[in-house]
Amino acid sequence: MKLMCKKNLFFLFSCSLLFSVSLLGSMNPAASVGAVEVSTQTVSYTDAMPADWNQHKAIFVDSFTSAYLAYGAKNEVVYDVKCGIGSWINEGESRKDGLKRTLAEVFDDEQKEVVEGKKRIVTAMLGDEVVGFLTTETQGNGDVYLSQMAVRADRLRQGTATALIKSALARIPAVVDVFVITRNFNEATAELYKKLGFKRGEFMPAGYAAAKYDSYVLKRRPVTVTSPLSCAPSETSNLKDLQNLLQRDDSYKILVLQQKTFEQKTSPKIADKVIKETSWTPNLDPFVDVKTTNNQRIQMLDTDQSGLFYTSPDYNAGHPDAGNMRPVLYQALVRMVDTLDELAPLVGYKSGSLCIKVFEALRPLEFQAKLFADKFAEICKANPDFTQEQAEQETSRWVSPVKNNIPVHSTGLAVDIRLWDTNSETFVDMGKWGAIWGSNPNAQSHAVAELSEQQQANRLFMLMAAAKAGLVNYAYEFWHFSVDDAYARYWQNLVK
After folding, report:
1. If phi over 0 gives left and psi between -120 and 50 gives alpha, with beta otherwise, what is residue 95?
2. 235 pLDDT band (50/70/90 cuts)?
3. Which of 86, 319, 381, 469 counts the highest number of beta carbons within 10 A?
4. 181 with 283, same domain?
5. In a domain, 228, yes or no
6. Which of 189, 218, 247 is the last residue of a domain?
7. How far is Cα 370 from Cα 300, in angstroms, rounded to an integer?
8. Do 115 and 243 have their domain in common?
9. 8 Å CB contact between 472 and 484
10. Same domain, 461 and 344
C-alpha cells in the first residue's frame, strides 16, 4: 500500500479513534481557547512553527500505536480488513513494529506539509514539553479541514484535546466552515462532534468512500441572499469602516505608523542606513515553490509565452525562480488567505473568492542588478539635473540596490503580489501596479490622493489582511511584502 493510502486511513482514525479514546467524557468545562488549568499547571496553546519536531513525532507514533493495538485486540476483523491496517505490517514484522514504522512515515509526511505551509499546526505545551498537537488544512474556497491530532498518553481525559480543537477554531476565520470526517461505525466520535456544534455534512476528500466515512461540518460561513452582481464590490466602499478598524486593532500598529511617516515624509527606504543597521538573521530553510504547492488560493500569475522576463504586471516575472520563497514567507501568505476572507465583506467581496497571485518572490542577483540599472537610467532621463548620488538614492526607493546591500527579494523573504477575484475574473483594482514599467506616482502604499474611494478601500484591505497575517509592507510599493528581513524587523522593533 502506498504511503498516501496509509495516511488517508490513518487520518480517519486520528479524527475518530483518538477522539473516542481521549475526549469522550473529558469535556473539561475549564478548557478555554488560550489555556486550560490542570492541577497546578497550565497547558498553553500556540500556532508557532515547532523548532524541534521530536516530541511531536514521539507523541504521534506512541499514542496511535497504543490506540491501534488496543482497538485491534477488540475487533481484529475491522482492524485488519475494513480499516486496512493489516496491510501495513510487513511479513515477519510484529504488529507493534509495523505500526511504529508506518506512523513514523506518516508523521514525516505531515511535518513536511506543515513546514511547506500546506497545513498549519496548533501545539499544546506544558512548560517546555509538548503534550499534544492538531493540524489543519485550508481548502480552495477558504473552508478548513481538521486533520491529524495526537495527545500524550498522560494527558488523556484532562481536556487537552478538546481545548486543542477550540484553540484551532479560534485561529480560523469566523466566516468559513470547518470540516472533519470519521469512520461511520464510530458513534462515540459522532456524538462528540455534535457536542462541539458539528452537524452531518456532505464534504468528502478525494480518495475517501462515502460508504465508509461520515462527514461533519461546523457551519460558520454567513448565508446571504445576493443579487447576480453581488460578487463584485459595491459602488460605495466601506473605506471608513476599514479606517476605524485600522485604529482600533493592535494588529495594524505598523500600518498606522507607516501612514504617519508617509505624511511626515520620513519613511526609510529599503537601502537606508537605519535599515542596514537593523539586526536580522538570514533564513536558509529550503525554498517552497508556489508553482508546485497546488494551493488554489495562492498561485503564480500566468507566464508570458514570449519567454521574456518582466514584460507586464499581468504576468509573473518569467524566470524559473520567481515562485521560490522561504517557508516562513509562504506560511504568512497562507495566513493572509484567512485574513482576506475575514475582511473581504467589508469591501464588497465574498469570503473565499479572492486569490493571492504571485508576481515574484526570489529574484537572482543578476536580475536585481539589471532592474536597478534600468530604473536608474529612467530616473536620470526624467531628472537630468540629478547627480549620480541623487539618482541612486531615488532609484533605491523603487528597486533595492545590489552594491553594499542584500536585496530582500534575493533572500526569498519578500514577495510581490496581486489579488484576483475568482467571481468577476478580474484583478482587485488598487491603482497602477508596479514600478519597473515607467513612473508610478501612486506606488507608495499611502499615496492615495489620486485614487477613487473604492481603490483606496481595496488597497487598505490588502495591506490590513497582510499585516494581520504577519507580513510587513514596503511603504514605497503597496504590492511588496516581507517577513524576517531587516526592513520588517525595523518596523517590528518600533512597535514593540
Report:
1. alpha
2. very low
3. 469
4. no
5. no
6. 218
7. 22
8. no
9. no
10. yes
pLDDT tens track for 84-114: 566 667 778 888 888 889 889 989 999 999 9
* 317 burial via Cβ count (<10 Å: 0-12, 13-18, 19+): buried
Instruction: Residue 478: give the domain boundaries.
Output: 239-494
Q: What percent of the chain has a predicted confidence (pLDDT) above 70? A: 81
Strand 144-151 with 178-183, pairing: parallel
Q: How far apart are CA 170 and CA 299, in angstroms?
A: 26
Task: Calculate the dihedral angle through the C-alpha atoms of 482, 483, 487, 492, rounding to the nearest 10 degrees.
Answer: 130
Cell of 389: 548620488
pLDDT, tens digit (0-9, with 9 covering 90-100), for 246-278: 998 889 999 999 999 999 999 998 888 999 899
Query: What's the pLDDT score for residue 368?
Result: 78
Q: How many domains does the chain have?
A: 2
DSSP class per residue in 275-286: HHTS------PP
Q: Do residues 170 and 218 touch, judged by C-beta distance below 8 A?
A: no
**In a shared domain, residues 181 and 298:** no
- The side-by-side arrangement of strands in the sheet containing 213-218 is 35-38, 41-46, 120-126, 129-138, 144-151, 178-183, 213-218, 199-200
425 lies in some domain: yes
Q: Do 316 and 447 sit in the same domain of this protein?
A: yes
- Please spell the DSSP secondary structure of 192-236, one letter per residue: HHHHTT-EE-----TT--TTTEEEEEE--SPP----TTTTSPPSS
For residue 227, being part of any structural domain is answered with no
pLDDT tops 70 at residue 8? no
d(CA 170, CA 76): 38
pTM: 0.57
Q: At 41, which amino acid appears?
A: Q
CATH number of the domain encompassing residue 173? 3.40.630.30
Co-location of 296 and 173 in the same domain: no
Residue type, 467: A
